[in-house]
Design a protein that fits this description.
Elements (H helix, E strand, L loop, with lengths): L19 H12 L9 H12 L8 H12 L3 H13 L2 H4 L1 H17 L3 H8 L11 H14 L3 H12 L7 H10 L6
Helix pairs in contact: 1-2, 2-3, 3-4, 4-6, 6-7, 6-8, 7-8, 8-9, 9-10
Length: 186
Amino acid sequence: MRSNPLSEGARVCESAPVNQSWEDRVAAAWAAFDEYPEERAHEFRALIDTLVAELPDDSPLGPFERACAWDSTGHSDKAVPLYREALERGLGDVSPYKARRTKIQLSSSLRNIGQAEEGVKLLTPELDAPCDELDDAVRGCLALCLSSLGRDREGLSLVLGALAPHLPRYQRSMANYARALVEPEA
């Protein structure tokens, strides 16, 4: 059996920002996620809960990590309120990157529970956010939400637009085709 570095019960993050040790242990938990088959999903969520217990009670990182754990184990319905709580607690101030991830994941979860329109409203402003490595995920998730609403041409346009820069050739023409899907014909 593996030793549990979390069994010490220390609240390493009390009255201080999250430290690198905590972040490393969270990353290690997620790196081991595939070791938890569906029938052991509750064990993975318990591991995340143990890590979250080290955080101050008002930390936005707690509901973020718990939402991710519920979402990744097939429970979008339980993840949605936790994602919202993380954003309401100011996750964007603690980690703009994780706040953007939260918006992507929340939109996906909303789509999964039949609220794709809300997902579209949440992600559309992200198209104009500063560029980062999550840009394609924003477009992909937004495309799925649009498709769930019967707006397939818009979704396809987003996905082709995201794909175009990664192609070894045909970048310009693929980007033009993506635009043509949603622009009115002249």
